[in-house]
Design a protein that fits this description.
This protein has about 375 residues and is of the alpha+beta class. The protein contains 8 helices and 21 strands. It has helices at about 1-10, 40-50, 100-105, 160-175, 220-235, 240-245, 250-260, 265-270, and strands at about 15-20, 30-35, 65-70, 75-80, 85, 90, 105-120, 125, 135-140, 145-155, 185-190, 200, 210, 290-295, 300-305, 310-315, 325, 330-335, 340-345, 350, 360. The strands form 6 sheets. It has a 5-stranded antiparallel sheet. Strands 14-15-16-21 form a 4-stranded antiparallel sheet, with no helix packed on it. The protein starts with a helix and ends with a strand. The structure holds FE2/S2 (inorganic) cluster. FE2/S2 (inorganic) cluster binds near residues 317, 320, 339, 352 and 353.
């Protein structure tokens, strides 16, 4: 696989070579991409965000878009019961809204990261080829270097053992001189079915564009999206537009993974209501945990907080109706079909769902 990667990179004209990575453990083989850069993402995007405001442009924070009507102008409806208008709309929302066809070409994964201070940090960004894979990078705060080890990805809502993921990453990090783990977090990663992001006009749209499927490389592909979409909005040709167009179908590159990523939805839809609940009584739910339980004949998703109070919601995902599963380390209800996520009171955290889970009473 690595040889094929090397050959493909060379064919594509990239500067790449075989290398011995400066890691404290042996590796069988490695390749290195030259002329790369590492930079602080927030230091990059905050000035960009400040640059938006003014001249008819605004930033609306804490405002969820729930629907977009294309027209002249386009109308953008929000969860605050307000409607914004715009000549053109770019949905850079991870999971594009109401785009069912595009949805089938994307899969949402959780990725995990642990970090801790190190005396010696390897310089560079490293990916291994395990399955699930790992990535290694470093970050400096003042004079202190931190090592970040990430990976253990799985499809959102499909692996309840999220604490085990962190445990495995901590074990992996012990190969370095990390004395203690000071940070851990997880994030949503959107994988495109044929390996490249979807950037461009959406199917059947003149004025609505999408940018998604960045596969964990959001700094690079976010910037590329801005370049492509700024040109498309102004009718200027862009040399990358065709390669990334959002309406493309690449059967050779994507068929196997298209099928694999899309069996979850019909399977879950058929089996969710038939599956027995996780527990048979509310008393069986421990503090800090959430379970599917049947109460007075109705299936409910119930979380018991650390004070012992119960939070009950409907388990039926408001996107297309699959049943959510509890994510212990994030304390969220995650949908195994297309990766929507909700907090313990049912509020949407991650699209494609835009509506909250219905709250229910258990008593
Ligand atoms: Fe599609 Fe839940 S995310 S059914």
């Amino acid at each position: 696989e690595l040889e094929l990667e090397l050959e493909a990179a060379l064919r594509a004209g990239l500067s790449v070579e075989r290398a011995s990575p400066p890691l404290p453990f042996p590796v069988k083989s490695a390749i290195r991409f030259l002329n790369q850069a590492q930079f602080h993402p927030r230091a990059y995007v905050v000035p960009l965000a400040h640059g938006i405001v003014g001249g008819g442009s605004h930033v609306f924070e804490a405002t969820r878009v729930i629907a977009v009507d294309e027209g002249e102008p386009c109308r953008i409806h929000t969860d605050l019961d307000t409607t914004l208008t715009a000549d053109r709309v770019i949905l850079a929302t991870h999971a594009p809204l109401n785009r069912v066809l595009l949805q089938t070409k994307l899969a949402q994964y959780r990725s995990y990261v642990v970090a801790g201070p190190v005396r010696h940090s390897p310089y560079g960004l490293f990916w291994d080829m395990d399955d699930p894979y790992h990535y290694i990078r470093s970050h400096r705060i003042g004079d202190q270097f931190y090592l970040l080890v990430g990976g253990e990805d799985h499809k959102t809502g499909q692996d309840p053992e999220t604490d085990v993921k962190f445990h495995r990453l901590v074990e992996y990090a012990r190969r370095f001189d990390v004395s203690t783990i000071t940070h851990r977090w997880s994030a949503q990663v959107i994988e495109p079915v044929d390996g490249l992001p979807f950037i461009g006009r959406n199917a059947g749209s003149e004025r609505v564009f999408v940018a998604t499927g960045f596969s964990g490389d959001g700094m690079v592909f976010g910037t590329l999206s801005a370049m492509i979409l700024a040109d498309l909005c102004r009718g200027i040709p862009n040399r990358y537009a065709e390669l990334y167009q959002a309406t493309r179908v690449k059967p050779l590159a994507s068929l196997a993974s298209y099928i694999e990523e899309n069996v979850d939805f019909p399977l879950h839809l058929l089996s969710d209501t038939l599956r027995p609940p996780d527990v048979t009584s509310l008393d069986a739910i421990e503090r800090g945990d959430g379970k599917i339980v049947r109460v007075r004949g109705e299936r409910l998703a119930v979380y018991r907080d650390h004070e012992g109070a119960l939070h009950a919601v409907s388990p039926v995902c408001t996107h297309l109706g699959c049943h959510v599963a509890f994510n212990v380390s994030e304390r969220s209800w995650d949908c195994p079909c297309h990766g929507s996520r909700f907090d313990v009171d049912g509020t949407v955290i991650n699209a494609p769902a835009v509506h909250n889970l219905r709250r229910r009473n258990v008593f």
